């Protein structure tokens, strides 16, 4: 039997059934990410070592077999859905991790979960700064593939800022190493940064060297309630212009606050009893800022006093949290926002758009009007210190009219974001969900340049095909109702 006649069976003979699984359960689990659009692959591959990865990619090139790299599957854009079938290359089991406290670097395989990385770093008094909401599930490889951000982005930036070096395989099966575990590296083109944010289309990451920071001695948080979103977003500008540097500054609009409190009322009513009075008494139009400072005990205490003094005229309520339990009670509200959205509808279109800081209020004004025009909820929350908001349209996908209005609403949102000088994605990437809007962001010359890079590194177009440049109307796709680990 030649490899071309049945590549999957041939690969199974080479690597064995444990590395090449074709049972329905394995294929279904690997058929979707958090977008929940399921396409069954022919097989799910669990390579035992780097030689197995090379074998897989060489055979895929020889036979034209599509290969979709995968970590935990917590991506939100369909980036890990195997839209052209073929093989899913699952590296979530690659979890080796070593921290060097002298160089302040972590040596990671791609399946290391971010919360585990930060836990190990903390043993050495160090911090891995990127902190996406999915940190308990998201893997190093997946967050590099999307250049993930997170709640601490206000002070610490995004994943790209912490990647020292990458190693892995080109789509052709050739091993490469981009950068090194050095504090300086200027030897040749910086192809490392091409892989970061490329969503698994330019190579397969098998190892990463990540920069760590000294761990802050303490953290202090405060929650400020404002009459509406305009007052809250004006406060963001005041804080940033004051010279304060919050580690995190998160915004929740009135719809988000309401549905999150409703969610906890239904799921864990005891949490509501521990919420500060200013939150429990917030008016229906109220918007919230959650602000955190880190550093020394003295510095964080000073920052907390300064910010409450700065906002005392604009805010209608404050709560502060100095110890771990108090902080967790405040931040649990923010971390449950995504789950809470479903109290407003069974399906959501979630767009992680970015606008200039001075245009934040204009974006929220637009979303409020968009909700009225479409008749759909538009809850919005996100990272106010860098202009990155998670804007949602909630709808019932069994209702054709509601689905149409949701799709038109997203199109209008993307056009407005570009008009405001923003970007259609800040940390989730393009995948399938944002592919119809990429040409709003980029001109023909820019698209051709990206595609030329893809063609140079992946001449057979086998690695994660059907994404980014291939437009897909995801709102028309059937959404799986399965509950994923982060839903619990």
Task: Give a structural overview.
It is a single chain. The protein has 488 residues and is α+β, with helices and mostly antiparallel strands. The protein has four domains: 7-90, Uridine Diphospho-n-acetylenolpyruvylglucosamine Reductase, domain 2 (2-Layer Sandwich); 97-214, Uridine Diphospho-n-acetylenolpyruvylglucosamine Reductase, domain 3 (2-Layer Sandwich); 218-340, Alpha-Beta Plaits, CATH 3.30.70.3450; 344-457, Alpha-Beta Plaits (2-Layer Sandwich). It is built from 18 helices and 18 strands. The chain has helices at 7-15, 24-29, 50-63, 114-123, 140-146, 153-156, 192-195, 229-241, 254-267, 269-273, 277-280, 297-311, 324-335, 337-340, 360-374, 400-419, 438-441, 444-457, and strands spanning 20-21, 43-45, 67-70, 87-90, 97-100, 105-108, 126-127, 163-169, 175-179, 204-211, 213-214, 218-226, 248-252, 287-295, 317-321, 347-354, 380-383, 388-395. The strands form four sheets. It has a seven-stranded antiparallel β-sheet, sandwiched between helices. Helix 8 (229-241) runs antiparallel to helix 15 and helix 15 (360-374) packs antiparallel against helix 16. It is globular. The relative contact order is 0.13. The model has no long low-confidence stretch (mean pLDDT 93).
What oligomeric arrangement do these chains adopt? single chain
Strand order of the largest sheet: 15-12-14-13-17-18-16
User: Structural class given helices, strands, pairing?
Assistant: alpha+beta
What is the total tally of β strands?
A: 18
The proportion of residues forming helix, as a percent range, comes to: 25-40%
Percent of residues in beta strands? 15-25%
Shape field: globular
- Major beta sheet, specifics? 7 strands, antiparallel
Stretches with pLDDT under 50, minimum 5 residues: none
Instruction: State the CATH architecture of the largest domain.
Output: 2-Layer Sandwich
Mean pLDDT equals 93
Reading off the top of the CATH hierarchy, the class of the largest domain is best stated as Alpha Beta
Distance linking N and C termini: 46 Å
Q: In angstroms, what is the radius of gyration?
A: 23 Å
CATH topology of the largest domain: Alpha-Beta Plaits
Number of individual domains = 4
Number of helices: 18
């Amino acid at each position: 039997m030649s490899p071309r006649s049945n590549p999957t069976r041939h690969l199974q003979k080479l690597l064995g059934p444990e590395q090449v699984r074709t049972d329905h359960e394995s294929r279904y689990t690997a058929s979707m990410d958090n977008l929940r659009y399921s396409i069954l692959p022919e097989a799910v591959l669990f390579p035992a070592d780097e030689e197995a990865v090379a074998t897989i990619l060489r055979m895929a090139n020889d036979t034209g077999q599509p290969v979709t790299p995968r970590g935990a599957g917590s991506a939100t854009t369909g980036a890990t859905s195997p839209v052209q079938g073929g093989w899913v290359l699952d590296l979530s089991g690659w979890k080796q991790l070593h921290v060097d406290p002298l160089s302040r670097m972590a040596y990671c395989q791609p399946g290391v979960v971010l919360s585990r990385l930060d836990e190990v770093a903390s043993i050495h008094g160090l911090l891995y700064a990127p902190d996406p909401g999915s940190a308990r599930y998201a893997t190093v490889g997946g967050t590099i593939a999307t250049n993930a951000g997170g709640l601490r982005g206000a002070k610490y930036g995004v994943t790209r800022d912490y990647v020292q070096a990458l190693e892995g395989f080109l789509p052709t099966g050739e091993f490469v190493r981009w950068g090194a575990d050095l504090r300086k590296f200027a030897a040749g083109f910086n192809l490392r940064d091409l892989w970061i944010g490329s969503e698994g289309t330019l190579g397969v990451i098998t190892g990463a060297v990540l920069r760590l920071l000294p761990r802050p001695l303490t953290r202090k948080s405060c929650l400020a309630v404002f009459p509406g979103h305009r007052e809250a977003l004006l406060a963001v500008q005041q804080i940033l212009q004051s010279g304060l540097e919050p580690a995190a500054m998160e915004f929740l609009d009135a719809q988000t606050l309401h549905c999150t409190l409703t969610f906890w009322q239904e799921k864990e009513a005891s949490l509501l009893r521990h919420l500060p009075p200013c939150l429990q008494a917030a008016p229906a139009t109220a918007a919230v800022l959650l602000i955190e400072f880190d550093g020394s005990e003295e510095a964080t205490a000073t920052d907390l006093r300064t910010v409450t003094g700065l906002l005392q005229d604009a805010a209608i309520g404050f709560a502060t949290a100095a110890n771990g339990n108090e902080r967790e009670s405040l931040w649990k509200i923010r971390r449950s926002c995504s789950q809470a959205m479903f109290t407003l509808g069974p399906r959501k279109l979630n767009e992680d758009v970015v606008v200039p800081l001075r245009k934040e209020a204009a974006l929220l004004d637009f979303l409020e009007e968009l909700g009225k025009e479409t008749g759909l909820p538009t809850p919005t929350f996100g990272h106010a210190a860098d202009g990155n908001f998670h804007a949602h349209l909630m709808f019932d996908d069994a209702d054709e009219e509601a689905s149409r209005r949701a799709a038109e609403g997203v199109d209008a949102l993307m056009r407005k974001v570009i008009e405001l000088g923003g970007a259609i994605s800040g940390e989730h990437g393009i995948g399938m969900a944002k592919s119809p809007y990429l040409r709003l962001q980029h001109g023909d010359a820019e698209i051709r340049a990206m595609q030329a890079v893809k063609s140079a590194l992946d001449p057979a177009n086998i690695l994660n095909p059907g994404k980014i440049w291939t437009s897909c109307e995801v709102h028309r796709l059937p959404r799986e109702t399965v509950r994923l680990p982060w839903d619990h």
